[in-house]
Structures are given as C-alpha cells and as structure tokens.
Amino acid sequence: MREIIRKVQLIGRSTFVVSLPKDWARRMGLKPGAIVSLILEPDGSLRVVPPSLRGPKKPESKLVVADGMSEGAVVRELMSRYLAGYKLLRVELPVEAHRYREIIRRVIASKMIGVEILEDSERNMVLQVLVNVEELPVTAVVQRMGQIAAGMISDSVEGLITGNLEFVDEVAERDDLVDKLYLYLLRQLNASIRGFVNVREIGLRCIEESIEYAVVGKSIERVADHSQKIALNAKSLIESSVDVTELGEELRAMANLAKEVFVSSVRCFLSRDRGKALNLMDEYPPKLIEAERRLLHKASEVPYNARGYMPLRLIADSLRRICDYSMDVLEATIDLALEERCR
After folding, report:
1. Between β-strands 88-92 and 60-64, what pairing exists: parallel, antiparallel or unpaired?
2. Exposure check for the chain: N or C terminus, fewer CB within 10 A?
3. Hey, what CATH class is 9-53 in?
4. How far is CA 301 from CA 85, 199, 219, 296, 312, in A?
C-alpha cells in the first residue's frame, strides 16, 4: 500500500481542501467537474471513490462442475463460494448431472442457511442466499450458537446419568445446527471484509472486530463438538449397560461448572465486559481441575473394566476442554473490549 501525503488547505473562511494525486486521477478517468464520493469509515478515515468504482459490488460467482469431479471437490468448491459471501451462485453441470445435483441439494440442506434453488434446469442450477444480514447479525449468531451448545453440555451428561438413549441421540444431532451457524458467521465476516456488506450492518463496530468474532465462533463450535463427543461416549456406556449412578453427583458437578463458565464467557463477550472476563479467567480453571480430580477419583473406586472407565475418562477430558475453549472466548472478550480498538 502506497502512502501519499497531502497538505490541508483553507479556501475562504470554512472550506478545507486536499488535492488529489494527478496520476491517480488520470488512471481513474477524473476530469474537472467530476463527482467523487467520500465515505466515512468506522475508524474515522475517509475513502475517496471515483465514479468508475462507485457501482455496487456484485456478490455473484460461477462454479463449473467438470465431468468426473469428486464429491469432495464439489462440496469444497461450493462451500468456498458460500463462505466468501456471494449472494448468487451459478452452477454449470456436466452431461451426467443427476449425481452432482443430489450432492448440491444435500450440501444446501446440511451446511447452508437461507439458500434456495432459484433455477434447476438440465445443465444449470442457480442458488441464492435470501436471508438479510440485518435479520441475523453476527451478535445474534454467536448468541444462538452459545445457547445451543450450552444445552448440549448439560443434556448429554443428564442423558448418561438417566440412561436415556433418545435424549443422548438428540444431543448429538444438535451439533449440525451449530456447525451451520458457524459457517454462516464466517460467511458474514468474509462478506464484510470483501465489501459486500457494511461492517455495521452485520453488527460489528469496525472491521478489526472480525478476528475476535471468528475466534469465538470457532471456540463455540468446538464446545459443541466436545458436547457431541460426550453424548457419543454416553451412548457407548448406556449400550454396554455400564451403571454410572454412583458417579451422578460428580458428573453433574463437573458438567454444571463447565456449562457455567461457558455461558458466562459468551455473555461477557456479547456485553464486552472486560472486567468480568478477567475475573472469570482466574476463578474457574482451579474449580474445573478439582471437579475433574473428584470425578476420576470416584470412578477409580468403582470396579469398572476398560470398556467402562475409558469413556468416562474421555467425558471428563471433554468437559475440561470446554473450560479451555471458554477461556479462549474470555481472552477474545478482553481484546474486543479495548476502548481504543475502533477509534
């Protein structure tokens, strides 16, 4: 990036004037009397936009699916365009289009939010993202992800203690929704970085905040993943008829602590409460370590075989990792809440 220094001059009594670089003006096709746009950026700087660049960016992309292209390649190509923030995706299909059409429909259903098929002809498909950024800003996405993941933590452990397989299976399925929300969050952040939407339209104060939101989104997604792992290990214990009722108190205590620190970390992030975040980072890790020690000590006193003990050990490890990811959310809160961040 080249920096050009200009002196501010006063014309008349109240008009400040800054001259434009001659080489740039020629390259942009500017002539005397031309109208340029001045855009006030969130950080206080001004952006000069000539008429040749004033037209709105067209968030549209085309994907050509070659014959013989693997399913994985089609999914990756499609998702890369979705995550980049494009509103309209044009897909050109090969002669044998049926298999690829089914792949695309499956990806839309399982990984994308607000995407509809506008056209589905023999060799072409047109996909459009219909959800408006104002309807689902990044703050609302983070809040919803946090609510779902928090419920997964307690419900997975409660399903284990009560031996309810349907309960455990339902918890595991909720991870898919968190994944979809996380991908949508990345899409919103990318769209703002590429200039498809204004940062304030998606709920940010400045573009620099994209980093913290991406970090928090990934941390919540990982918390949901570990909650799913707890559910899967719980299912293994239930199906193996391993009785964990003697560990009920310790399991609930550790799960409640993990959920409590996670919920508090997300709440701190959304409210930008830097002081609370600093206190929580000192308060909860020792509590989780002690709760894990008690759980594993109690489990060692019960005559479990390897099939019973190992899933319990993995459940304790996942609950501890949930605490670790909550610490990442709190660290992002501290960075986000710096007063001079968006000046």
Report:
1. parallel
2. N
3. mainly beta
4. 54, 55, 34, 9, 13
- Given the structure tokens 């007063």, which residue do they identify? 339
The architecture in CATH of the region 138-336 reads Up-down Bundle (1.20)
How does residue 54 score in pLDDT terms, banded at 50, 70 and 90? low
What tens digit of pLDDT does each residue of 243-266 get? Answer: 888 888 999 999 999 999 999 999
Backbone angles phi, psi at 236, to 5 degrees: -60, -40
Q: What ranges do the domains of the chain cover?
A: 9-53, 60-129, 138-336
Query: Which pair of structure tokens corresponds to residue 269?
Result: 């992030």
pLDDT in tens, 20-41: 888 888 888 888 888 888 877 7
CA angle in degrees (0–180, nearest 5) for 206-207-208:
90
Closest C-alpha among 309, 191, 186 to residue 240: 309
End-to-end C-alpha distance for the chain, whole angstroms: 21
C-beta separation of 326 from 216 below 8 A: no
Q: Which residues of 139-173 are buried (b: 16+ CB within 10 A; e: fewer)?
A: eebbbbbbebbbebbbbbbbbbbebeeebbeebbe
May I ask the CATH class of domain 60-129? alpha beta
Q: What phi and psi, each to the nearest 5 degrees, are found at residue 70?
A: -75, 160
Structure tokens at 178: 């968190």
User: Contact 84/190 with Cβ under 8 angstroms?
Assistant: yes
Q: Which two tokens stand for residue 98?
A: 């049926």
Number of alpha helices (DSSP H) and beta strands (DSSP E) in the chain: 9, 8
Q: How far is the C-alpha of 223 from the C-alpha of 230, rounded, in Å? A: 11
Q: At CA 251, angle to CA 249 and CA 253, rounded to 5?
A: 65
Strand order in the sheet with 115-120: 60-64, 88-92, 124-129, 115-120
